[in-house]
Amino acid sequence: xxxxxxxxxxxxxxxxxxxxxxxxxxxxxxxxxxxxxxxxxxxxxxxxxxxxxxxxxxxxxxxxxxxxxxxxxxxxxxxxxxxxxxxxxxxxxxxxxxxxxxxxxxxxxxxxxxxxxxxxxxxxxxxxxxxxxxxxxxxxxxxxxxxxxxxxxxxxxxxxxxxxxxxxxxxxxxxxxxxxxxxxxxxxxxxxxxxxxxxxxxxxxxxxxxxxxxxxxxxxxxxxxxxxxxxxxxxxxxxxxxxxxxxxxxxxxxxxxxxxxxxxxxxxxxxxxxxxxxxxxxxxxxxxxxxxxxxxxxxxxxxxxxxxxxxxxxxxxxxxxxxxxxxxxxxxxxxxxxxxxxxxxxxxxxxxxxxxxxxxxxxxxxxxxxxxxxxxxxxxxxxxxxxxxxxxxxxxxxxxxxxxxxxxxxxxxxxxxxxxxxxxx
Length: 425
Known about the structure:
Elements: E1 6-8, H1 12-15, H2 19-29, E2 36-38, E3 43-44, H3 49-82, H4 104-119, H5 123-132, H6 145-152, E4 162-163, E5 166-167, H7 186-198, E6 229-231, E7 246-249, E8 256-259, E9 272-274, H8 275-293, H9 307-325, H10 331-366, H11 370-377, H12 388-398, E10 399-404, E11 419-423
Helix pairs in contact: 2-3, 4-7, 5-6, 7-10, 8-11, 9-10
């Protein structure tokens, strides 16, 4: 009994979808004599030029069929997106198995997470709280900061339909509303997106626009004022050291110290303070300032004033498209002007989303009970106190920096007057 040298396939059109692939297969197959080729219907002699030509023609037909299927799939996806139909796949957290009806318990968790994140709580702090409470993803895994961020920034959260990473828009330019129940309002979702965009590095967005710079303190910190305190020791030639203070533990490990690093790493090594005393002094200044100013004046909320400009630009593009479809203008004129108008529309929409999100964040901040903030400020998280990330969010919103001036030689008593806050105007 001799072994068979050859290839058996279910069907010819399953062997190769592209002519180039079929040619390479035949070349490799016919390199040696005596090989057998067969499909479910019959045996074929690939050494014959006529059979090879027929196979090549079949590959071309198969490729055409694949392209037709792809076009039908894209058209189907586009049509479903314009109708606001839900997509398949695993159940998204916050919804039931039908992907339309809200799971009220999970939706409440997402809603609170979005509000906390917009108010300044870190994603890491939120997922750590969820882990302590035993909250899992729909697949039974622990939540991670990146998976929670991905969930919160999805347009599905506020009922918008997404396709290939972009919002699906109706003919009037407004986002298509999906058939599922939303977890957030569009303003709340934009507030989350505004925070996420603000924490990204120098990203390049569509159209080549550079995104917002990465904030200096985007990581999770262990102390209240790291990245905020700066050395105020005078240096030769005028001015002050201005190096960021670092932290270290005392020998007994009970307290932390803010200190200026040595000259070899950009500091002067001439300033140091007990961390708990500095934290308390600056916290009291901030809390007093919050109560005095009611934390934020409602008149300071940003307003977007270019709604009419956006409407006019969208109408220009619609009119240009109508004239092109009626063959009243040439292709070169249409595509040359359409690209510029689409760029203006994208820029205006991004600006609108950014300002709307910022206004929503300020609304959340104004609704904050300052007395409740003061009460929870000095409690531990186990006692219901504010998470460190929330406290640091207040610090970032109120302070550019705190300059720590030298206290002189020896062990002088702590003097809060040597702390110079630089307030955000």
